[in-house]
Design goal:
39% of the residues lie in helices and 14% in strands. The chain is of the alpha/beta class. Bound molecules: pyridoxal-5'-phosphate.
């Protein structure tokens, strides 16, 4: 299904690109609807904390200059990120969110009809960015533990494959790939295929065996790492993310980037966030504790829920997804539902998480009731 219908054909004087017809719609997380119930928006993996005071100050100081174009080279924040990771500034490039950076990669690398391989279900933007670039999306199903099936992804590589997107921790399942698995995978993948490690949620990953993209960037000539300030750093509304890539790739990404796509406000906020890393760490630690608490309580309620290394949990509700979403909504908990597959719920404030857990218990009872009546019927 497409979100573009040609509508009244007689009035469509301009023909749109055929690629638009086959794009899946990007469904943003629903907003908290105004109603009598207090609502918690746990549908977009946003950070529940307000901006740090020092970050707000940095933005306020820059705001009188909004009549001016931003620094297109993102110089100061490029240097800060480079020193944060111990890489050359020439390896760092920015976009308005790491979604834009992912789009830059596909547009810079893929010719019409080239293939982009990714796990499925994974980040919703992947098939859209791929289709828009005129490339072909190759979906490789997650394994039975909701994890990337890296051997199957390596086996999906053909002569047309240009890019492989590895999302770890994976949105929406929260599972991450291990370093051993990713090394094994890199051995199978030809060097002319670019492997993009999308680490939007890496800050929440406490698995000591997990792959760290930066190590793979250092070890292989065909790895790009994607990071964002939207999740752990809480700057989703300002739109800033970056890639760490081999220099010739960084240069190509800058060439295809939207000119002046990253505002000075975003650049300053990112700089101030990097300078406040210990405060950011405290918040991450608190969110990880909340996540583990939510996981534990769900398990006690009888949910078979995979361990998440991100700031959300994944409930495999299958055919009962719509009914489950309805119950959550009634409790004022706005979740991200994927029809007939499952529900992703972001870790929010303690009050939001508590409201989610209360609703989850009712959903569990509903699902158990449905299973019982089927067995009896
Ligand atoms: C949220 C997210 C991003 C980053 O989004 P931006 O706000 O554009 O930086 C990238 N990849 C995945 C998998 C995400 O979930």
């Amino acid at each position: 299904m497409s979100h573009y219908s040609s509508g009244d054909a007689a009035r469509s004087a301009v023909s749109l690109r055929s690629a638009l017809q086959s794009l899946p719609p990007y469904k943003p997380g629903k907003s908290a609807a105004s109603s009598d119930v207090i609502t918690y928006k746990l549908s977009s993996n946003e950070n529940p904390y307000p901006p740090l005071p020092s970050v707000l100050d940095a933005v306020n100081q820059m705001s009188p200059e909004m009549n001016l174009y931003p620094d297109m080279t993102c110089q100061a924040v490029t240097e800060a990120v480079a020193s944060r990771w111990g890489v050359e500034p020439s390896s760092v490039s920015f976009g308005s969110g790491s979604v834009e950076v992912a789009s830059q990669i596909i547009r810079a690398v893929c010719e019409e009809g080239d293939e982009v391989v990714f796990a499925w279900r994974s980040f919703e933007a992947y098939p859209i960015l791929t289709g828009l670039a005129g490339a072909k999306a190759v979906h490789v199903p997650l394994d039975e533990n909701e994890r990337h099936d890296l051997p199957a992804m390596a086996a999906a590589v053909t002569e047309r494959t240009k890019v492989i997107l590895v999302c770890t921790p994976n949105n929406p399942t929260g599972t991450s790939v291990t370093a051993d698995e990713l090394h094994e995978f890199m051995k199978q993948v030809p060097e002319h295929v670019l492997v993009v490690v999308d680490e939007a949620y890496v800050h929440f990953n406490v698995d000591p065996d997990a792959a760290r993209g930066i190590d793979f960037f250092r070890a292989y000539p065909n790895v790009v790492v994607l990071h964002t300030f939207s999740k752990a750093y809480g700057l989703a509304g300002l739109r800033i993310g970056y890639a760490i890539s081999p220099d010739y790739i960084s240069a190509a990404l800058r060439a295809v980037a939207i000119p002046f796509g990253v505002t000075n406000l975003a650049q300053q906020a990112a700089l101030a966030s990097l300078a406040a890393e210990s405060e950011v760490e405290e918040r991450i630690t608190a969110l990880v504790e909340q996540r583990d608490h939510v996981h534990q309580r769900l398990t006690e309620q009888g949910w078979d829920v995979v361990e998440s290394q991100a700031n959300f949990v994944w409930l495999r509700t299958g055919e009962h997804t719509a009914a489950a979403e309805e119950i959550f909504t009634r409790h004022g908990v706005i979740v991200r539902a994927f029809t007939d597959e499952g529900i992703r719920v972001s870790i929010g404030s303690p009050a939001g998480n508590q409201a989610f857990l209360v609703a989850a218990e009712e959903v569990r009872a509903h699902l158990d009731g449905a299973a019982t009546s089927r067995n009896e019927g």
